[in-house]
UniProtKB/TrEMBL annotation, chain A:
Main location: cytoplasm
Subcellular location: Cytoplasm
UniProt KW Nucleotide-binding keyword: no
Sorted UniProt keywords: Aminotransferase, Cytoplasm, Pyridoxal phosphate, Transferase
Similarity comment: family membership: Belongs to the class-I pyridoxal-phosphate-dependent aminotransferase family.
Cofactor(s), names only, from the UniProt record: pyridoxal 5'-phosphate
Organism: Daphnia magna
Protein known as: Aspartate aminotransferase
Example GO biological process: aspartate biosynthetic process
EC annotation from Swiss-Prot or TrEMBL: 2.6.1.1
Pfam families named in the record: Aminotran_1_2
From TrEMBL, chain B:
Keywords linked to the UniProt accession: Aminotransferase, Pyridoxal phosphate, Transferase
Cofactor dependency: pyridoxal 5'-phosphate
Family: Belongs to the class-I pyridoxal-phosphate-dependent aminotransferase family.
InterPro entries cross-referenced by the UniProt entry: Aminotransferase_I/II_large, Asp_trans, NHTrfase_class1_PyrdxlP-BS, PyrdxlP-dep_Trfase, PyrdxlP-dep_Trfase_major, PyrdxlP-dep_Trfase_small
Database matches in Pfam families: Aminotran_1_2 (PF00155)
Record domain Aminotransferase class I/classII large: where: 58-425
Miscellaneous: In eukaryotes there are cytoplasmic, mitochondrial and chloroplastic isozymes.
The keyword Transferase is annotated on this UniProt entry: yes
Protein name (Swiss-Prot/TrEMBL): Aspartate aminotransferase
EC number: 2.6.1.1
Transmembrane helix in keyword set: no
Catalysed conversion reaction: L-aspartate + 2-oxoglutarate = oxaloacetate + L-glutamate
Subunit field text: Homodimer.
Length: 411, 430
């Protein structure tokens, strides 16, 4: 055989969160704890398929009128319109004036990618900012979508274990005009630290003044506080200010539909006459990427969101998940304070959503993994869903142990 | 794509959002998007839209390429229904799929293409990832080739080819070139033209091949012609990228339809392969497909696999499972698999019989034209050879909807409307 054309292809580095999960799965230690991958777990440590989702799947299976025909390129319209309405609220001026539109995408990542490709190819934006730190995939999505420069704005103050608001504002002030700014709508990943309402107002003022373009990433609406409206406050505030913006929405966590890839890209314009041209250009982008989105998850979410009774049922599930996470935050903080673990631990309950930036340094993290079989990301991010009444004592004890025996800056 | 002009952006705070003519004008000027032009309308969608608006009870939609049963209705394969029932029993979770899709799905899919006991999978030489049906798999493949193919970055495509191949390749950063394929004089394969053009392709270029049921013409090379092409492609050191969207759906026989792919591998080519379950399992909207590279060693397969994942993650992180689970269940459950083989043969047979009926009815109508290509061609589509004015007349006078290039979707023909169609075609072509 002729020499291979691909002999020179090098193996790519493993992706941290998946490598971590693999290590956890292969660990035989009986008390191992997985605080890595961002998926909800019940108090028994199990995945949870929401009852309303199971119910919908049975209903869909029994519905003889349904088929597997292609969805339109821009997706299942009942899903897209309901998702946009869920985000902006039915009082939204942009929605009422026909200036807001939704496009079904492949979960949050897919919505980010379609939005980013549109902004790069059609909007000719080339510079994008995200927070430091941010979700690991943000930079890759935008750079692969055609952006030429990925930059960070300060966000996490390691010393205070809080938002570095002054740093954030200074970095945005220095961002070139037309830069796209990725904003986590709520439950910042990975820190769990969100700006206050007053801080959001100032951020909006600055974005307006500096002529930057806001791109919201909303992966946890409802999942963060248990309240859909509360978690959408920042997006709705920007909308009420008349911003043009896009927002990537994921239904992976709040519907527990991780592997069905249900998402929505909400696009808000100043003028309704641009909506159709924009949709037609996005159609071309989608066609050249994957033609049309998957059907199954869209029907589940689209049907629930358009049915008041099912929506109420779903809201109660979200509250269940959010409440359990909040109780784990309380529980962990209480135990660490009771153990008198060095440092302050109020950040655990100040933070919101699935993740907590513990402030644990790399040495402590290594020890937690190697000595105690507790798996978390290098940067100290833990998934609160991985905690439950069965393991919270063990985790608190081990955190105490590594903190007291590790010499590390800033804790 | 649209033109970009540089706009002076006014401060958004000067805008009020109450609806009056002045604010509409100033809001357009304020918008980031007022320069965005309407994209060209999708030609196939346009056909369906026009069809929907037509009130003629005899209207026929021969545009969209989706299978229809003899009542003109979408068809859910019995094997699919059975698979769904099995899957429901298992109460599976909704946890993230691996980036590359489930290993079971990938294995079943590449084995479907190459044969259950094939030496390439057995030796771990394939890097196979789930893709968003055929389009998504082509997208992953073109992205990989754009980044890693060590030769020329032009992808050579048959003339004509599926309308989306060109935007797909360009979007991935590849150049697009052509080789002759369809001969309008015979409504058949331009074998000599194809060989001549392929022989002129610069060495170490990539060539796209439709494995079976060529879209849009329905014209496939004969086995001995494939053998010749394989030889020339090997001599010219070209890299074959197979698009197989109709395995089983073309002839009704999964091995026969995959024969060109298997032949090329036996001949020693390293190939790329895109597969789709949209048509052969009727899973259109569930978006199940796969992209594979057949490598020269296990290590190479592992390395290319890791790079494929790096390509997928910033696109959509990981694939949707429902369609893939159905395909896996069907392929790995012996009774479901044999049911599926019956179902797909049933679809292929119906299409073949519609071709026969159309041709015989045209003869009955008294048409003196040679319509042999209707039955010589294979798969979903038929390039009738009708000219644009004839197509226009067919639509206007008979409410038969098809694309301007004279392509009909044979799946849209039923035993109840084939006579009407033959009559209509005869009227516009006599």
């Amino acid at each position: 055989m002729a020499p291979s054309k691909f002999a020179s292809v090098e193996s790519a580095p493993p992706i941290e969160v998946f490598a971590l999960n693999k290590a956890y799965v292969e660990d035989t230690f009986p008390q191992k704890v997985n605080l890595g991958v961002g998926a909800y777990r019940t108090d028994e440590g199990k995945p949870w398929v929401l009852p309303v989702v199971r119910h919908m799947e049975q209903k869909l299976a029994a519905d003889e009128t349904l088929n597997k025909e292609y969805l339109p390129v821009l997706g299942y319209e009942p899903l897209a319109s309901a998702a946009t309405r869920m985000l902006l609220g039915s009082d939204s001026a942009s929605l009422k004036e026909g200036r807001a539109t939704g496009i079904q995408c492949l979960s949050g990542t897919g919505a980010l990618r379609v939005g980013a490709e549109f902004l790069a190819h059609i909007g000719k934006h080339s510079i994008v900012y995200s927070s430091n730190p941010t979700w690991g995939n943000h930079s890759l999505v935008f750079l692969n979508a055609g952006f030429t420069s990925y930059r960070s704005y300060r966000y996490w103050d390691a010393a205070k274990k809080a938002l570095d608001f002054d740093g954030l504002m200074e970095d945005l002030r220095n961002a070139p005009e037309n830069s796209v700014i990725i904003l986590h709508a709520c439950a910042h990943n990975p820190t769990g630290v969100d700006p206050t309402q007053d801080q959001w107002r100032q951020i909006a003022d600055l974005i307006e003044e500096r002529r930057l373009f806001p791109f919201f990433d909303s992966a946890y609406q409802g999942f963060a506080s248990g309240d859909l409206d509360r978690d959408a406050w920042a997006v709705r505030y920007f909308d009420s200010r008349g911003f043009e913006m896009v927002c990537a929405q994921s239904f992976a966590k709040n519907f527990g539909l991780y592997n069905e890839r249900v998402g929505n890209l909400t696009f808000v314009a100043k003028d309704r006459s641009v909506i159709e041209p924009v949709r037609s250009q996005i159609t071309l982008l989608v066609r050249a990427n994957y033609s049309n989105p998957p059907n199954h998850g869209a029907r589940i979410v689209g049907t629930v969101l358009n049915d008041p009774v099912l929506t109420e049922q779903w809201k109660s599930h979200i509250k269940t998940m959010a409440d359990r996470i909040i109780s784990m935050r309380l529980g962990l903080r209480e135990r660490l304070e009771k153990l008198e673990t060095p440092g302050t631990w109020n950040h655990i309950t100040d933070q919101i959503g699935m993740f907590s930036f513990t402030g644990l340094g790399p040495l402590a993290v290594d020890k937690l993994i190697a000595d105690h079989h507790i798996y978390l990301l290098k940067g100290g991010r833990i998934n609160m869903c991985g905690l439950n009444t069965g393991n919270i004592d063990y985790v608190a004890k081990c955190i105490h142990e590594v903190v007291t025996t590790t010499q590390e800056a800033s804790l | 794509m649209s033109l970009i002009s540089s706009l002076k952006i006014f401060s958004p705070s000067s805008l009020n959002t109450t609806q009056n003519a002045l604010s509409v004008v100033s809001s357009r000027a304020n918008s980031w998007w007022s320069h965005v032009e309407m994209g060209p309308p999708d030609p196939i969608l346009g056909v369906t839209e026009a069809f929907k608006r037509d009130t003629n009870p005899k209207k026929m939609n021969l545009g969209v390429g989706a299978y229809r049963d003899d009542n003109g209705k979408p068809f859910i394969l019995p094997a699919v229904k059975m698979a769904e029932a099995e899957i429901a029993k298992k109460n599976m979770d909704k946890e993230y799929s691996p980036i590359s899709g489930s290993p079971e799905f990938c294995k079943a899919t590449i084995n479907l293409a190459l044969g259950e006991d094939n030496e390439w999978t057995k030796n771990g030489l394939n890097a196979t990832v789930q893709g968003i049906s055929g389009t998504g798999s082509l997208r992953i493949g073109t992205a990989f080739l754009s980044a890693f193919f060590p030769g020329g970055k032009d992808l050579y495509m048959p003339t004509p080819t599926w309308g989306n191949h060109v935007p797909l390749a360009k979007h991935a950063g590849l150049g697009v070139k052509q080789y002759r394929y369809y001969d309008p004089k015979t409504c058949g394969f331009d074998f000599h033209g194809a060989l001549q053009d392929i022989a002129k392709i610069p060495e170490r270029s990539m060539i796209l091949l439709h494995a079976c049921a060529h879209n849009p013409t329905g014209v496939d090379p004969k086995p001995e012609q494939w053998a010749e092409m394989s030889k020339v492609i090997k001599e010219k050191k070209l890299f074959p990228f197979f698009d197989m969207a109709y395995q089983g759906f073309a002839s009704g026989d999964i091995d026969k339809d995959a024969a060109p792919v298997r032949m090329f591998l036996k001949d020693g080519h390293q190939i790329a392969l895109s597969q789709s379950y949209a048509k052969n399992m009727g899973l259109y909207g569930e978006r199940a497909g796969a992209f594979s590279l057949i490598c020269s060693s296990k290590e190479e397969a592992a390395a290319t696999m890791s790079q494929l994942k790096i390509i997928i993650r910033p696109m959509y992180s990981n694939p949707p499972v429902t369609g893939a689970r159905i395909a896996t269940e069907i392929l790995t459950n012996p009774s479901l698999r044999s049911q599926w083989l019956k179902d797909v043969k049933g679809m292929a047979d119906r299409i073949i019989s519609m071709r026969q009926l159309l041709r015989s009815n045209l003869a009955k109508e008294g048409s003196s034209r040679d319509w042999a290509h209707i039955t010589d061609q294979i798969g979903m589509f038929c390039f009738t050879g009708m000219t644009p004015p004839q197509v226009e007349k067919l639509t206007k006078d008979f409410s038969v909807y098809l694309t301007k290039d004279g392509r009909i979707s044979v799946a849209g023909i039923t035993s109840k409307n084939v006579e009407y169609l033959a009559h209509a075609i005869h009227q516009v072509t006599k």
